[in-house]
Amino acid sequence: MPPAGPRSGDAIFASVERVNAELFTLTYGATVRQLLTDLEEVEEVNKQLDQMGYNIGIRLIDEFLAKSNISRCVDFKETADVIAKVGLKMFLGVNATVTNWDAEGTCCSIVLEDNPLVDFVELPDTCQGLHYCNILSGVIRGALEMVSMKTEVTWLRDMLRGDDMFELQVKLLKQIPEEYPYKDDE
Amino acid sequence: MPPAGPRSGDAIFASVERVNAELFTLTYGATVRQLLTDLEEVEEVNKQLDQMGYNIGIRLIDEFLAKSNISRCVDFKETADVIAKVGLKMFLGVNATVTNWDAEGTCCSIVLEDNPLVDFVELPDTCQGLHYCNILSGVIRGALEMVSMKTEVTWLRDMLRGDDMFELQVKLLKQIPEEYPYKDDE
């Protein structure tokens, strides 16, 4: 019998299939390096990482909904909490918190104190404009679009740039009406 | 107190940090897709995936040696067994077997019945020459080079090409003398 309510990120993370985090980290690092070689412009790499993340997010949302037993969030506030407490835990195994809400409740920050993507990573001087973790903001943007929320996701703080944590700003731009047919990007 | 002998792949896999396998699979898929877009030629993509794997392998070997308590293999036969039973289990969580040894004991096949890299993957007709999992053969080649074995690693069977399993041929080309200084590819 399936559990009646939403499951915690820890419980889901413990039950899903996983791979070694270092393999993931190094594979991601090799990807970024390859993009830097192929595309040359750091700004282009940022864009591609975001787009790759978006393509992942629009598919990952299915696994998320299936495994988490979360069917619908009341509002954007609850959505942000679910990303931080369940989503990031379930996929990356990290803890995150939501903070810095604006008065309208349409913009907040998700703060990560840990991030397996950047283990062993140091940016050379030539890559100072690189948003190394842009794939992650893309994933969140893509996943939210599949549940009818058009968002803008931006890195405000980045440990690879000397900040003391990762801060991701998530801004709700538009709530797409539920009856809108999903666009198939595949 | 550290355990005295080598640890099993299962035990190590249970104890290391991990991330969600689907996230890994989709990230790898996005990488391959990106390379296909950027490089256009399937043969070029095969080469790049292999090179990315090689760069990962020469770093991953350190984690492998540290976590597995394996210090040195007696010969190439034992090495192949360790890759199949410990390495692939520890990093990908899969079971593999070694088979098809040649008379000299310098060439064998590693057979995988499962492979998280290819979940949800179907190759379009335009990509029939693609060795989708070439990153994996590159990882093995890179890791072995760091323990003084120069090898050639080739896919003989591939489930994405309609075979019933994955078969990776590992051929020992040269055993580099132990005193040889490691080449720093970084």
Automatic annotation (TrEMBL), chains A, B:
Keywords: Endoplasmic reticulum, ER-Golgi transport, Golgi apparatus, Transport
GO BP terms in the entry: Golgi vesicle transport
Localization: Endoplasmic reticulum; Golgi apparatus, cis-Golgi network
InterPro entries (UniProt xref): Bet3 (IPR016721), NO_sig/Golgi_transp_ligand-bd (IPR024096), TRAPP_component (IPR007194)
Top-level division of the source organism's lineage: Eukaryota
Any GO CC annotation of this UniProt entry: Golgi apparatus
Quaternary structure note: Homodimer.
Function: May play a role in vesicular transport from endoplasmic reticulum to Golgi.
Family label: Belongs to the TRAPP small subunits family. BET3 subfamily.
Protein name listed in UniProt: Trafficking protein particle complex subunit
Species of origin: Cucurbita moschata
Gene field: LOC111446643
